[in-house]
Amino acid sequence: MINASVRRVLIGAVGGCLAAYVVVVAALYFNQQSMIYPVPHMSASVPDGYQRVSLQTADGLTLAALFRSPSAGQRVVVFFHGNGDNWDGAALANRDIAAAGYGVLLCEYRGYSANPGTPGEAGFYADGRAAIAWLAGQAIGPDQIVLAGNSIGSGPAAQLAAEFHPAGLVLISGFTNLPDVVSAGLPWLPARWLVRDKFENREKIARLKIPILLLHGTEDQLVPAAQALMLKAANPAARLVLMPGFGHELSYQPAAQALERDWLDRL
Predict the structure, then answer these.
(1) Which of 232, 234, 267 is nearest to 242 (CA)?
(2) Cα 226 to Cα 117: distance, rounded to the nearest angstrom
(3) 3-state class of 88 per DSSP?
(4) Does the N terminus or the C terminus of the chain have fewer Cβ atoms within 10 A?
(5) With 0-12 CB in 10 A as exposed, 13-18 as middle and 19+ as buried, what is 137?
């Protein structure tokens, strides 16, 4: 039988653990903006072959983006990079695509690369719509556009695909939704309650009737490959390629870009 003094120690220990847990969860909740959107501090250059363009969002922001014109008869890939990246990385992730003559619009989010505004789910969608509107002004419509998103960029890519029905959609290291990513990395957190931005990709691609390519590394430690399998299950017509030995850096790998280029060629 536990005596009163031991009972008090145990109750105090449990209470202390609960209090520490609440403090940690509260800290994560109130600081999630900077953790989910770690805006890189290094400056981004304009890669060769690209020109700087300005996109106007519906909420009044002027965002800088980069555009590379397509060769005659080629489509334009609208690319949304991962959350800690910028133009330099986005250009690297599309190096082989651009070399094949496809046009490339490297979208840049609000709050990134000296753009005004604060990153967030609704803002990312608005930024993507501004990119589609800019292309429309260049006489490039949805049937000439392929949307591509890497990591968190899969969120705006999936959303815009649901809105505009482009020629195709490519998700690289994409996830089912953002709370699932947090749960996979921190299973002790109440992620569905904690994470404000959801990016419900699985629900959106389930309704799409366009060609979809899913590329995912089997060694991805940030977004488990199991989430790619769930995306495929949500839309069985999508093509899923699991790439052994690759992690979350997949979009920069020549092997992944070769698969994407081949898929684009067959559209």
Answers:
(1) 232
(2) 34
(3) helix
(4) N
(5) exposed
> What Cα–Cα distance (Å) separates residue 86 from each residue in 79, 83, 102, 104, 132?
11, 8, 20, 15, 19
Which has the closest alpha carbon to 94: 109, 113, 114, 75?
75
Cβ atoms of 97 and 257 within 8 Å: the answer is yes
pLDDT score at 179: 85
Q: Are 158 and 149 a contacting pair, CB within 8 Å?
A: yes
Provide DSSP, 173-214.
Answer: S--S-HHHHHHHH-TTS-HHHH-S----HHHHHTT--S-EEE
| Residue 91 scores a pLDDT above 90 | yes
How many Cα neighbours within 13 Å face the side chain of 6?
3
Residues 156, 125: Cα–Cα separation, whole Å: 5
What tens digit of pLDDT does each residue of 182-223 get? 776 555 455 565 777 889 999 999 999 999 999 999 999 999
Backbone angles phi, psi at 164, to 5 degrees: -115, -10
Spatial CA neighbour of 81 closest among 251, 195, 237: 251
pLDDT above 90: percentage of residues in the chain: 70
Task: Give percent of the chain with pLDDT exceeding 70.
Answer: 81
What CA–CA distance (Å, rounded) separates 85 from 39?
8
Residue 10 reports pLDDT greater than 60 = no
CA 218 to each of CA 13, 79, 124, 223, 227: distance values in angstroms, whole numbers, following the listed order: 41, 22, 27, 10, 11
